[in-house]
Amino acid sequence: MKEIVIKTDRLSKRFGDFIAVNEISFEVQKGEIFGFLGANGAGKTTAMRMLCGLSIPSSGTAEIAGFEVYKQAEQIKRNIGYMSQKFSLYEDLTVSENISFFAGIYGLTNREIKEKGEALVEQLGLEKETKKLVGSLPLGWKQKLSFSVAVLHEPKIVFLDEPTGGVDPVTRRQFWDLIYEASAKGITIFVTTHYMDEAEYCDRISIMVDGRIAALDSPSKLKTQFKAGTMDEVFYQLARGAKRGD
Amino acid sequence: MRTIRFLLQKEFRQIFRNRAILLLIGVMPVMQLLILPLAANYEVKNINLSVVDHDHSGYAQKLVAKVTASGYFKLRGYGASFKEELKKIESDEADLILEIPEGFERNLIREDQQQLFIAVNAINGVKANLGGAYLTSIIKNFNEEIRIELLPPGRFNPGPVIEIIASNWYNPLMEYRFYMVPGILAILVTMIGGFLSALNIVKEKEFGTIEQINVTPIKKHHFILGKLIPFWVLGNIVFSLGLLVAWLIYGIIPIGSLLVLYGFLAVYLLAILGFGLLISTFCDTQQQAMFIMFFFMMVFILMGGLFTSIDSMPDWAKLVSRFNPVSYLIEVMRMVILKGSGWRDIWPQFGIITLFAVVLNAYAVINYKKTN
């Protein structure tokens, strides 16, 4: 029996008449790499923001790390890491200042901040850049740093919203190495992406179409189910039916 | 507490890395205090005067000499045609016309009576008003002088005269800078505090960093305090710089206790920073925040009693100014600096400003939503 860390039941979010997320139900197990796919405007980010406690659901329930989203949003925040679509470390702080700031507000002790910070810098090969402003780093480095900061406090789950958008293939590969490492430590990864090769790296993926989950399984099973050779084809088959998008 | 320490560390690092902010808090107040009090001066000099002289007599010349010697007036024209001189008013070369009628001297001596005519360009109200008043009083003075001259010494028996001796308390020489400098400093502190705090949270919204904060278990009041404290410190620095300039340049030393002054300022800054933070919780972009703050600042400044006295405002405006925190600071600054008021004198203002601080900050904390 595997431990379930994310569990949603008919979770919805409405903005006026618009139903951004329409009754999605799924479960994610501990340590899993869960891919969250969908065309632009399918409702991925909205769904993720609800799971992170950034947005209150309109209806349905969700339990994250054993806490429910309506009343225990703050406890959830203690147990998750989040990396948004928009780069959101402080560009006018240096690498090490960002690390110690975020580690500090998650309540890490000074010794932990020092040790983990050094380990992080070493892992990313940023030893020479610690005193540089984050704003001056190339995008790929920023994204890797951003991920490492998001898992520095060893959350149970980390939510990644299109973490590799605009990043070159080599850096993307390195980024996924970081993800695997975190996953091996038992951190559950919840990741949205538009790259189908990245979808293949996931243990299981869900594909959202018009606010609903249209398919959910492991990449190989989905390919069999949709009689497709690649994840690309699976995605096209599902996304072609979408009524909204950009 | 530890969280706040990390927040403060971050805020101060960002502030000290931002050259624009450093200039804003260091150079702006000093520059403004050097320039503004000299410019914002109600004392009207250089009133442009045109004289239409139909008489060309000795007395007429004496009068004109007396008027120009007063230092308030500049003789812009001296002619014999009212029409000509009126053109100067039309083209804004002259503010006032003094018309001396024909037979001025003759009538004055023979009939003991003469009329003078003053035409005032009332477009610039202050200049016109004061100019007219100065001119009238100079002419009155002139009148006294020639009365003595004209009457034979023996018959000179002055009637009962009430002489008024005025004494200006708290600002004996009626120096405008004593009146203006504390007020301008009050406004400077308000502007810098208000704008910096209003823009700060919105900037985090624009850059997206607020999302990263909102997803942490940080407490709302910690976050707001982390924003409030750095700007509170900056506000105190700006204020101290201002007092220093007031002392070094204008020789203004607060008569009252500095403790009272800083005590009031401490709470006032909390109020104005809370107001800025409140605005920033309502806005999504720095532009929005800027414009909204600008709107309030205009009202605060124009209705704060710096340029126009609140006592002479209509009742509805007096009511509005009661909701204007700036008016309390200006009032208290003048009371403490010029009059030497103590705690007992300023406690009503202190109470009200405390109320402002509590309400505005509570509202800002409530309105700052980590979850939407």
TrEMBL record, chain A:
<dbReference type="Pfam" id="PF00005">
    <property type="entry name" value="ABC_tran"/>
</dbReference>
<keyword id="KW-0067">ATP-binding</keyword>
<feature type="domain" description="ABC transporter">
    <location>
        <begin position="6"/>
        <end position="235"/>
    </location>
</feature>
<dbReference type="InterPro" id="IPR003439">
    <property type="entry name" value="ABC_transporter-like_ATP-bd"/>
</dbReference>
<dbReference type="InterPro" id="IPR027417">
    <property type="entry name" value="P-loop_NTPase"/>
</dbReference>
<dbReference type="GO" id="GO:0005524">
    <property type="term" value="F:ATP binding"/>
</dbReference>
<dbReference type="GO" id="GO:0016887">
    <property type="term" value="F:ATP hydrolysis activity"/>
</dbReference>
<protein>
    <submittedName>
        <fullName>ABC-2 type transport system ATP-binding protein</fullName>
    </submittedName>
</protein>
<keyword id="KW-0547">Nucleotide-binding</keyword>
<dbReference type="InterPro" id="IPR003593">
    <property type="entry name" value="AAA+_ATPase"/>
</dbReference>
TrEMBL record, chain B:
<feature type="domain" description="ABC transmembrane type-2">
    <location>
        <begin position="128"/>
        <end position="371"/>
    </location>
</feature>
<feature type="transmembrane region" description="Helical">
    <location>
        <begin position="291"/>
        <end position="310"/>
    </location>
</feature>
<dbReference type="InterPro" id="IPR047817">
    <property type="entry name" value="ABC2_TM_bact-type"/>
</dbReference>
<keyword id="KW-0472">Membrane</keyword>
<feature type="transmembrane region" description="Helical">
    <location>
        <begin position="178"/>
        <end position="202"/>
    </location>
</feature>
<feature type="transmembrane region" description="Helical">
    <location>
        <begin position="21"/>
        <end position="40"/>
    </location>
</feature>
<feature type="transmembrane region" description="Helical">
    <location>
        <begin position="346"/>
        <end position="366"/>
    </location>
</feature>
<keyword id="KW-1133">Transmembrane helix</keyword>
<comment type="similarity">
    <text>Belongs to the ABC-2 integral membrane protein family.</text>
</comment>
<feature type="transmembrane region" description="Helical">
    <location>
        <begin position="259"/>
        <end position="279"/>
    </location>
</feature>
<dbReference type="GO" id="GO:0140359">
    <property type="term" value="F:ABC-type transporter activity"/>
</dbReference>
<keyword id="KW-0813">Transport</keyword>
<keyword id="KW-1003">Cell membrane</keyword>
<keyword id="KW-0812">Transmembrane</keyword>
<feature type="transmembrane region" description="Helical">
    <location>
        <begin position="229"/>
        <end position="253"/>
    </location>
</feature>
<dbReference type="InterPro" id="IPR013525">
    <property type="entry name" value="ABC2_TM"/>
</dbReference>
<dbReference type="GO" id="GO:0005886">
    <property type="term" value="C:plasma membrane"/>
</dbReference>
<dbReference type="Pfam" id="PF12698">
    <property type="entry name" value="ABC2_membrane_3"/>
</dbReference>
<protein>
    <submittedName>
        <fullName>ABC-2 type transport system permease protein</fullName>
    </submittedName>
</protein>
<dbReference type="InterPro" id="IPR051449">
    <property type="entry name" value="ABC-2_transporter_component"/>
</dbReference>
